TrEMBL record:
Pathway: Amino-acid degradation; L-valine degradation. Residues 122-217 form the Acyl-CoA oxidase/dehydrogenase middle domain. One of its GO terms (molecular function) is flavin adenine dinucleotide binding. Pfam families: Acyl-CoA_dh_1, Acyl-CoA_dh_M, Acyl-CoA_dh_N. Its cofactor is FAD. Belongs to the acyl-CoA dehydrogenase family. Residues 229-379 form the Acyl-CoA dehydrogenase/oxidase C-terminal domain. Transmembrane segments: none annotated. It comes from Acidovorax soli. Keywords: Branched-chain amino acid catabolism, FAD, Flavoprotein, Oxidoreductase. This is Alkylation response protein AidB-like acyl-CoA dehydrogenase. One of its GO terms (biological process) is branched-chain amino acid catabolic process.
Length: 388
């Protein structure tokens, strides 16, 4: 067991840190305040390979381990969790398409997505199917050589501004459950697709969120990902990595907040001395750092389990997502508290980091659902000996 990063991994992290400080830091507050989706900055990330980190090489990706991808995402999220979170979602959708698409679809979309020239959205959630994703109602009917899609999706990141939709739709009958769901690559501008209003959100303002409606949308049959009925399994495999990604974004946001708090404690003076000299605040900083390191190590453990194809990887991913998103939000909140009133104003990045980190406890499966996943596994007879 080696907790030290390799020189190559450190180089990846340093490249991401330098990129984020140069391309995100000067603009992140403006993107947030004005609701700007920074597609040009994302494309620059794509030039460094950050839009296809773990996508297969056949699709133009770097095929990196998930552990290495966390290093990149964490550094970017320390500056701008919202934009980074979209890049992680794009990576997830790109990996799914690159892994399960037919060669023709993969060869067309893969190079465009992995370079960031084109962007992807992940479309699972529906107005009536959130935590119970297997109850989704969007349908795809095979008619001749085409699938005809009808239905609606909700809370879709990037919707209206992306180029391809990785869509889960029902191909089985209404009672078919998870086994009746299939996955598709759908061009985002296909006739019959319409987008709802841009949602006004608490955070994640540098990426648009909209509903998507499908009215007799026709796509070629070869746009099916994998085989019919495999869509839910594909979606869940995507979410294992997605949960690590969002957990990493929380770790990054917390790292950014911790660094801000540490510097502020040195600079801010009250009662004639820096507030860093007050033991109560020292203890708060110590707890923040401890929780952050624990969250980071749990995320990296889960990523390693996923890379190794461990049979319990999904459980570790759920654990990492639950713990790191809760801990990350707490660290951001404590950092804001250490800033006092200054933490609450937009001149400082704390309130933005806090707002952006909050949604991580909800998406990619709520933390309550993460507990369900973990508990189900822990009730198996061998779990206490295996999950350690």
């Amino acid at each position: 067991m080696d907790f030290e990063l390799t020189e190559e991994q450190r180089a990846f992290a340093q490249t991401a840190r330098d990129f984020a400080r140069a391309e995100f830091a000067p603009h992140a507050a403006h993107w947030d305040a004005e609701g700007i989706f920074p597609k040009e900055a994302i494309a620059k990330a794509g030039e460094l390979g950050f839009c296809g980190l773990y996508a297969p090489e056949a699709a133009g990706g770097l095929a990196l381990p998930r552990l290495d991808a966390t290093l990149v995402f964490e550094e970017m999220a320390a500056v701008d969790p919202s934009t980074t979170a979209f890049i992680t979602i794009h990576n997830m959708a790109t990996w799914m398409l690159g892994t399960w698409a037919t060669p023709a679809v993969r060869d067309h979309w893969g190079p465009l997505l992995t370079t960031g020239e084109k962007l992807a959205s992940y479309c699972l959630t529906e107005p009536g199917a959130g935590s119970d994703a297997a109850s989704l109602k969007t349908r795809a009917e095979l008619v001749g050589a085409e699938y005809v899609i009808n239905g609606a999706k909700a809370f879709i990141s990037g919707a209206g501004s992306t180029d391809v939709l990785v869509l889960m739709a029902r191909t089985g009958d209404a009672a078919s459950g998870a086994g009746g769901i299939s996955a598709f690559a759908v061009p985002a501008d296909a006739p019959g697709i319409s987008y709802g209003k841009k949602e006004e959100k608490m955070g994640w303002n540098s990426q648009p969120t909209r509903t998507i409606s499908f009215d007799n949308v026709r796509i070629p049959a070869d746009h099916l990902l994998g085989r019919e009925g495999e869509g839910f399994k594909i979606a869940m495999k995507g979410l294992d990595g997605g949960r690590i990604n969002i957990a990493t974004c929380s770790v990054g946001a917390a790292q950014g907040a911790l660094a801000q708090a540490q510097q502020y404690m040195q600079d801010r003076k009250q009662f004639g001395k820096p507030i860093a000299s007050f033991q109560a605040l020292q203890f708060k900083l110590a707890d923040m750092a401890t929780e952050l390191v624990a969250a980071r190590q749990m995320v990296r453990l889960a990523a390693s389990k996923l890379d190794a194809g461990d049979a319990n990887a999904s459980t570790y991913c759920a654990m990492a997502k639950r713990f790191a998103t809760d801990a990350g939000f707490t660290v951001c909140n404590e950092a804001l508290q250490l800033h006092g009133g200054y933490g609450y104003i937009r001149e400082y990045p704390l309130e933005r980091l806090l707002r952006d980190a909050r949604v991580h406890q909800i998406l990619e499966g709520t933390n309550e659902i993460m507990r369900v996943i973990i508990a189900r596994r822990m009730l198996d007879g061998d779990a206490p000996d295996v999950i350690r």
